[in-house]
Every structure is written in structure tokens, then in C-alpha cells.
Amino acid sequence: MVKSDSALVRSFRPFEKLTDSQTSLWYVLWLIILIAGWIKVSVYSDVKIIPSPLMVLGATKNLFSEGLVRQFGASLGLCGLSTLYALLVSLTVAYLSPLPIMKPLAQSISKLRYVPMIGITYYLTELQLTGRPLQVTILSLFMTVYFITSIMSMIGDIPPEEYDLARTMGCSRWEMLWIVVIKGRMDFVIEILKQNLAITWMMFVSVEVLVISTGGVGILMKNSEKTGNQERIFAIQILIFLLGVLTDYLLSLLRSNMFRYSKTVKEL
User: Which pTM does this prediction carry?
Assistant: First the structure.
């Protein structure tokens, strides 16, 4: 009788599958290693280049007493509104890209992801956009080009057999677009949204700094940077990260519950 290998041995094999509890154990172990390294570098190192966990906890407490929840609310409002506009434009353009007249437009918009943000910001300010409209426009534009790129890639990866099946069932071209591309790939849109929200999470702080009158977490980080308050910067970054992880989890939960037939992409 061949004895099965232990979970520890299997953990060092490529493409090996572990149970949920075994995977969770590795998450906990890596978290412990990360925190231990943080303490070592910030407390017991001769050169203290980052704040200690206790300093970050203290800064977090002070931030909450200074209205951090309100500032996060402003930032989430910016991200939510920008995402909504970007999705509406992206889905419309990408879903119509199978039309020969729309394909060049969709591909051209996709290529705009190589344009620097500073150049676009300059022309938007020339149009007299200020405040929250300027922030939403900048963030929506950059999210749109990545959304369109991802959705068009998704459409291009649809197997030809699915179109052949739709033809066999007597579907017209517009019905094929609805059944195969739009309705049949709705779960992938949620996955694309989850992946591209990381772009929003990376950019919204920079966008908020452009217009300080609207408030937001970006302003708190900029003010902390000016005063050299590293523990506040560290605390805000950790909170943004945790909020991003929570959003990622909720979108995964939404996809698995709304589309139970979907083959969920495994997290890397």
C-alpha cells in the first residue's frame, strides 16, 4: 500500500491541490512571517526606515478621530461613480465591436492606454473642468480604456463552436451577439471588473491630489507626506489595501452566487 504524501510535501509541488484548511494555514503562516519581518525591520533594526506596528495602530486611531471614515466615503464615492460611467461606456463600445463600423473605434480607444495621464489632465482642465467632475472624468477615462481592452479580449476568446451552435439553433446575427457574447459571458464581466478595479485603487489617490478641494484619502496621504508622518501614510495604505481585498472578495462572492454554472477563475 502506497502511503500518501503529507500536505507539507505536496505544498512544494507545482499545480498540487490542497484542501481549503491547508491553504488557509499557509495564508496564516505567510502573514505571521510578514508581521515578524515588519517588527524586525521597524523595531530591532539599527536603521529604522519604516514605522513599527504600534506606531501604525496609534496613527490609525488618530485618523479615525480626525474623520477618516468621511474621507474614505468621499474616495469611495469617486471610485463608484467613475466605475459606473466607465462600465456603461466600455460595455456599449466593446459589445458593439463585432460590428465592422465599430471595431476600429473600439480598438483605437483601447490603444489610449499608452497615453500618459498628465497630457489628458491638461486638456481636461483647458475645458474648464474642476472639482469632482474633473476627478470623475480622469478616472473614468483611464478605467474605460482598460475595460474595453479586457472585454474585447474576452470576446475574442469565445470558441467558434459556440457561434456555430447558435447558428444551428437558427439565431440571427443580433441574437448571436445577445446570447453568446452578452448574456453568455456576463459572469466574465464581473471577473473583468474585479481585475480592473485594481487600476482604480492605484489611481484614485493620485487623482484626488489633483483637486484638493473635494477631500478624500488622497489628501490625507499628501498632507502626511508633507509633514513626514510615515506612520499615517502606512496606516492609510494598509486600510486601502484591506478595503481592496474586501471588495475583491465581495465581487467573487457575487459572481459565484449569481452564476453558479460559471467556472470561477482560480486566484493567483
Answer: 0.80
